[in-house]
Write a structure and sequence with these properties.
By secondary structure, this protein is an alpha/beta fold. It has two domains: about 180 residues, FAD/NAD(P)-binding domain (3-Layer(bba) Sandwich); about 120 residues, FAD/NAD(P)-binding domain, CATH 3.50.50. It has seven helices and 21 strands. Strands 1, 2, 5, 6, 7, 8 and 21 form a seven-stranded mixed beta sheet that branches. Strands 10-17-11-12-13 form a five-stranded parallel beta sheet, covered by helices on one side. A three-stranded antiparallel beta sheet has the order 14-15-16. Strand 11, helix 5 and strand 12 form a beta-alpha-beta unit. It is elongated, with a radius of gyration of 21 Å. It starts with a strand and ends with a helix. The model has no long low-confidence stretch (mean pLDDT about 95).
């Protein structure tokens, strides 16, 4: 049965940005509603060990997000297991419609829907995600100290990931389907001059090979894009670095975006181009993409929204 719920602040997304926004908004007595979305907890729920979250030497990604959700609920924030199918920002109160049939109206909204790593789409890639296959060198590079690693891609993301991974890996093979990189020239020069990195031009990944018990990557099978020749590269880690896609479908034609859909915010704030609409986390961050920076932006968004709603009430 459909119903309508109104809140002063609607938070869309339940990763570190969304949960932190919910905690701060509830403490500000805004009685927020947080709608979890199709992937409750965000990208951390498909991560295994997290060793760079302050206060925890090591914690599993799903466990960290379960704790965040519990904290969010404990503050009084209403957490809804729903998916927002549409969002109308043309007039206030803003209107969001959930897959459940529920309509949400709000005086302000925090967009915290995150971003999705682009993947190759291979069944073997899916099989080993979190067990040797990763899309975040900063998150997982530490686990491959002294190991051979493969990085896939040819843009800034791939080159930056490969260079970062040289801090841990014994050797890195960069697989690219062309014979030149798309990254910035200075990054290209650093990569090509690095003794640990070997580019493999005109190749694409055909299959990721590994064991089941325990699960883990053992090699990558690649195919030459011109000759079709198959080569097997032994490795323990595969980093897919072909970019990220911000989950901004709901607002792509309603707020200002750049760089392929990342939401633009006013410098020093989380305010978007639409008054009363705030963005936090990976949906607006194409640089850092870390849980701790997303949480910080979630805090900022809640405080910005609180200030906006207070000034809005005074203007009435």
């Amino acid at each position: 049965m459909s119903d309508t719920r109104h809140t002063r602040l609607l938070i869309i997304g339940s990763g570190p940005a969304g949960c932190t926004a919910g905690i701060y908004a509830a403490r500000a007595m805004l009685e927020p509603i947080l709608v979890q979305g199709g992937e409750p907890g965000g990208q951390l729920t498909i991560t295994t060990e997290v060793e760079n979250w302050p206060g925890d030497t090591e914690i599993q990604g799903p466990d960290l997000m379960a704790r965040m959700e519990a904290h969010t609920r404990a503050t009084g924030c209403r957490v809804m297991g729903d998916i927002i199918a549409s969002l109308d920002l043309s007039k206030r109160p803003f209107t969001a419609r959930g897959d459940s049939g529920t309509t949400y109206t709000c005086d302000a909204v925090v967009l915290a829907t995150g971003a999705r790593a682009r993947w190759l789409g291979l069944p073997s890639e899916e099989m080993f995600k979190g067990f040797g296959v990763s899309a975040c060198a900063t998150c997982d590079g530490f686990f491959y100290r002294g190991q051979e690693i493969v990085v896939i891609g040819g843009g800034n993301t791939a080159v930056e990931e490969a260079l970062f991974l040289t801090n841990f890996a014994s050797g890195i093979t960069l697989i690219h389907r062309r014979n030149e990189l798309r990254a910035e020239k200075v990054l290209q020069q650093r990569l090509l001059n690095h003794e640990k990195i070997k580019p493999m031009w005109f190749h694409e990944v055909d299959e990721i090979i590994g064991s089941d018990m325990p699960p883990g990557v053992e090699a990558v099978r690649v195919k030459h894009t011109k000759t079709g020749k198959i080569t097997e590269i032994p490795c323990k880690g595969v980093f897919v670095a072909i970019g990220h896609t911000p989950a901004s479908d709901l607002v792509i034609d309603q707020v200002e975006t750049h760089r392929g859909g990342y939401v633009v915010t006013r410098p020093g704030t989380t305010q978007t181009s639409v008054p009363g609409v705030f963005a936090a986390g990976d949906i607006t961050d194409h640089i850092y993409r870390q849980a701790v920076t997303s949480a910080g932006m979630g805090c900022m968004a809640a405080l910005d929204a609180e200030r906006f709603l207070a000034e809005d009430a005074c203007a009435l």
